[in-house]
Description:
With 174 residues, the chain is of the alpha/beta class. Helices cover 27% and strands 18% of the residues. The chain has helices spanning 48-58, 61-67, 99-114, 137-149; strands at residues 10-15, 29-34, 75-80, 83-85, 90-92, 118-121, 152-155.
Amino acid sequence: MPIPADEDPLVCIVDSGVVSGHPFLMNWVIEERDFDTGEDTPTDLNGHGTSVAGLVVYGDIAKCIESRNWQPKVKICSAKVLCHDAIWQRPVIPEQHRAEKLIEDAIRYFWKDRSCQIFNLSIENSVEVYRGGRKFPWAEKLDELARELDIVIVQIAGNRDNPPLPEKVYSNPI
């Protein structure tokens, strides 16, 4: 496995943490930090953040497996903002926090401390699904941060386990 160079791009994964000792991520996780999730560890206890980090570092994992060519593309910082929910068996925002504040703290920290310019949020707010009209606090905060800090924030649009949206919502796709 190659060792990262100073000029390699840096991406901050804002998620459930990362298992930095994973053989395919070792040396590519530059810094990891727990943002008061209550788990007292920056390590991923759920697996979601580690999976996301693998996709960000390597791209198409199926192609890597098929070609047996594993070439890391970016260095990673891990901002743990999700904790593992034992009942739902998935990562969630800790109950004592507002999602947008926790995410803002994480983004500002890695922007200031590591000069990170690219942030990946493969997390969603399934309670606040956009259906036209005014945007929600989470989206508004991400827009503000992107403009103020001159950063790129990659935010997912949803997950495959979500219930399907009504036909009229996506009948005229882009």
